[in-house]
Amino acid sequence: MNTFKSTTLAIQHLLAMYAGAILVPLIIGGAIGFDSAQMTYLVAIDIMMCGVATLLQVYSGKFIGIGLPVVLGCTFTAVSPIIAIGTNPEQGITDIYGSIIASGVIVMIIAGFFGKLVKFFPPVVTGSVVSIIGISLLPVALNNMAGGQGAEDFASGSNIALAFITLAIILVVYRFSTGFVRAVSILIGLVAGTILGAVMGKVDFNPVTEADVFHMVQPFYFGMPTFDVTAIITMTLVAMVSLVESSGVYFALSDICNKKLDSKDLARGYRSEGLASVIGGIFNAFPYTTFSQNVGLTRMSGVKDRKVIYITGGLLVALGFLPKIAALTTIIPTSVLGAAMLAMFGMVITQGMGMLVPVMNESAENAMIAAIAVSLGVGVSVVPGIFDALPEKISILTSNGIVCGSVTAIILNILFNMIGPKHKKDPMHGEA
């Protein structure tokens, strides 16, 4: 394949994942209260680290790299926990990056035998966790649709109108297009909504004009990392759920590429994701996981050449050195961003539901596991102080909705599905 064709396909892969890649830093930075300069850095470093993580994974070495045409970006499962850590009065930004680094190291250590741990993360557990994360993110999306919490024009008619027009554009493009255009429907909605926002006077171009044309990245931009036990447990659980999801992507790509995977291949893939998180934490970016939308693009195009993904990774790294391009994403009106968030977070919820429905139909036990885990996880997110009276050692597991829901799902799965005699029940009629 010639370089021009490979580069064209690489740009297509970049565009397919770009909206997902930039939304994560925009959501997190906005929730934590970063200014425009910090937001620009956050977006730029995230784009760059997406490229680094992709290059680490597409490479096939002795210790790292799954060696498949896979593109990596920040996992959406990390958004809610990172916001919770960053906005917690007893934690903060430096705890975010300490927990990302620590969880990455833990993943690298357990990579070799994660295949044995994966039995503790069946679909009933991972589906519950993904559902909790998606539901917990909805208030962020809705607040942004209204203009952002604390905004002077919060819930104004113009903000709501702009949000729903953006959402309508996304839905129309998604409904009446196919293939690549459908894959970038959210990106099209963001661009169209921003143009409309500019016409309405809701776009400030100062961050773009003030941003440097080129900058060097620096480690620990937001300060030296600190290591909080609760934050580390939270991000490690998120990392394990992410590894389970990545495993599905690995096998999907191996089927497309006719490459059989063994346990050593999987261990190299997990190790790469752990290393990417460590590097991401050092440079104040995020944990990274495989992006499933690029798998669809690979299947659609039929091009399995890793050279294309190497170019994609290189382009992402190069973009990370160009703050003006990163600053362009920070001028997106908050209500436009909220509309895109609603669509993407809704997809996270339906992804979790998609995992849960088949296993809940298998047995009443699985339905009960999901019911209690999701209810507790979302409940703690909505009423965060409910378990404040518990001893500190226990409150580590109950103060965060995602940790509480995850631990509940794991324990109940062991109790119902791994201990004692196996007996399936019809969910509607008792004993099968």
Automatic annotation (TrEMBL):
Keywords attached to this entry: Cell membrane, Membrane, Transmembrane, Transmembrane helix, Transport
Membrane-related topology note: Multi-pass membrane protein
Molecular function terms from GO: xanthine transmembrane transporter activity
Transmembrane regions: 12-33, 39-56, 63-84, 96-114, 121-142, 154-173, 180-200, 220-244, 308-332, 338-360, 367-387, 399-419
Residues making up the signal peptide according to the UniProt record: none
Subcellular location: Cell membrane
Pfam families attached to this UniProt entry: Xan_ur_permease
Entry superkingdom: Bacteria
GO CC field: plasma membrane
Family (UniProt): Belongs to the nucleobase:cation symporter-2 (NCS2) (TC 2.A.40) family.
Name of this chain's protein: Xanthine permease
Species annotation: Lysinibacillus macroides
Organism placement in taxonomy: Bacteria, Bacillati, Bacillota, Bacilli, Bacillales
